Amino acid sequence: MDRNDQRAIEWDCTQLLIRFYSLLDEKNYEALADLFADDGVWVRLGRELVGGPAILAAMSERDDWLTAHLVSNIRIDIIDADTVETTQYVTLYRH
Fold first, then answer.
1. CA distances for 56 relative to 21, 36, 44, 52, 75, angstroms
2. Could you count the other beta carbons within 10 Å of the beta carbon of residue 48?
3. C-beta of residue 17 within 8 angstroms of C-beta of residue 88
4. Which of 18, 47, 60, 75 could pair with 87 in a Cys bridge, judged by C-beta atoms 3.0 to 4.6 Å apart?
5. Whole-number pLDDT of residue 49
6. 87: burial class by Cβ within 10 Å (0-12, 13-18, 19+)?
7. What is the distance between the terminal CA atoms of the chain, rounded to a whole angstrom?
8. pLDDT tens, residue by residue, 42-85
9. Helix residue spans in the chain (DSSP H)
10. Which of 33, 32, 21, 31 is nearest to 67 (CA)?
């Protein structure tokens, strides 16, 4: 994989992370769940949520706070053309 391919993957994944947290703050849970494949896993508060229905169920239990997730220090580690691992800092403000 050449560096241009790597940059494209890093860009797409970074934009996906930003979109994820934006949708979460907007409480647009349907669109947030649609970001995940059927077997996609979101580990939230130590609990594995697998696929859209599990994510929507967990979001229905979410308190009605106003939130702002600030995402920084995003690192995308490319494993192969279909797999990445990410690390990021998330600062949560809630009201």
1. 15, 11, 12, 6, 27
2. 9
3. yes
4. 75
5. 97
6. exposed
7. 44
8. 999 999 999 999 999 999 998 888 999 999 999 999 999 899 99
9. 3-26, 29-34, 51-60
10. 21
Q: Which residue has the tokens 């797409």?
A: 12
- Residue 26 has phi, psi (to 5 degrees) of -80, -5
Q: In the numeric block, which tokens belong to residue 15?
A: 């934009």
DSSP state at residue 79: E
The pLDDT value given to residue 63: 84
Half-sphere exposure of 88 (CA within 13 A, CB side): 20
| Pairwise CA distance, residues 38 & 58, whole Å | 16
pLDDT of residue 39 exceeding 90, the answer is yes
Specify whether the CB–CB gap between 90 and 82 falls below 8 A.
Answer: no
* DSSP structural state of residue 46: T
